Amino acid sequence: MKSVKVPAWEFYGWQPETLTFPEDWEVHEQRMKGHDTPALKPKPIKEKIQHPIGTESLSTLARGKRRCVIIFDDMTRPTKTTQMLPAVLDELHKGGMSDEQIVFMMASGAHTGRMLFDFQKKLGEEVCEKYLVFNHNPYDSFVDLGKTSRGTPILINKEVMSCDLKVVVSSIMPHFGYGFGGGSKMILPGVAAVESISPNHAIRKGTDPGKVSGNERRLDSEEAAEKVGLDFVVHSLLNADSDVCDLVAGDMIDAHREGVRRARNHYVTKVVPDADVAIGNTYPMANEGYKAYHIILESVRKGGDLVYLLYTPEGCRVHFYNGRFGTDYGGEGWRPDVYTKKPWKMGRVLCVSPTGLMKADEHYYGEGSKWVKTWKETLKLLEEAHGSSAKVAIYPTASMQISESNAAHD
Length: 410
Fold this sequence. Notes:
Strands 3-21-15-16-19-20 form a 6-stranded parallel sheet, sandwiched between helices. Helix 1 packs across helix 3 (85-94). Strand 10 and strand 11 (179-180) form a beta hairpin. The model has no long low-confidence stretch (mean pLDDT 96). It is 24% helix and 26% strand. The chain has helices at 42-50, 58-62, 85-94, 116-123, 125-130, 158-161, 194-201, 216-228, 254-266, 293-299, 375-386, 404-407, and strands spanning 2-6, 17-21, 26-29, 68-73, 102-107, 132-135, 142-147, 153-157, 165-171, 174-175, 179-180, 232-238, 244-250, 268-269, 275-281, 300-309, 324-326, 329-330, 348-352, 370-372, 391-395, 402-403. With 410 residues, it is α/β, with parallel strands linked by helices. It has 2 domains: 2-33 and 267-407, 2-enoyl-CoA Hydratase, Chain A, domain 1 (Alpha-Beta Complex); 42-266, Rossmann fold. The chain has 12 helices and 22 strands.
């Protein structure tokens, strides 16, 4: 038997899983270009943060400031914030800020809040003990900054707006709605009200994966973030271990665009066309595993098998905008075929989830998708369908991989 190891269980052990295949099958493991890029050591991380793009150093910006908020991404992102925080805090302290002047806000947008062990995974136990760390509440306590030119209300977290220095620490990865994550997205939707998130998410013009230029949803978000006064961003690019392997810091627009330029090259992946079986390992965002959809959809042949690997005990995250909250209704953006839509070109959708299925979440992966608990059971189904010969494409970090065609978007 052939075997391929894929990374898995982000934030829950970070242990790989092994997939086996018949010896005669044609198996392609399609890695993103930056898969094996070495992790940055603390010193180069610090140097990159100390030499920002498009703005003064963070220590200079911190001088004379009364209070700083560090806005960090939530558990739907694999960012190892602990790898960047020491350098960020050093810069703030160098600028004269004390620990008591620094607070943390999780940019969960319309996602559900989190608990102590989540904050500890993201920030480390010491930070949780020493600093005020908060969940964002998308339903209460906002400052009204008016509307964007597209009519989106700018209702922003009150704690964020009480701070006169606003810093973001997150990662940049491909995103099907905003082109790439990071930048202003950490403000809207990150720390905005549902009343702001809903109209922003409803903007569809220019929202293809990898598209930033002309992306109306991102432009709307950036207009809001400008009014908020986002001062400084720290954005990592991640390797297959979800370690920080490159970093940009500085101005919300200039640093983000440089990060996007690098990300197009870093996450790009050659797609194997007409695969009998296209496998998307939804790591490192298995709790939003449908994000693997675009690249494996490009790969699978008509009538073939599309396979999601969902290695997380969390299931699918709660989303107050597009989540399902009843038999036939949900948030404002909910619809039954929200991601894996019918009619589809593949013959089947198989979902491998060792921790089981929450039936209410099935619609994210397509009504009629088949859920199995082990790879052994999945392989049996694949062998029954394809016999002694099959062309298989595996995308080991599919949730952050982007095809050459989508990476080419400007």
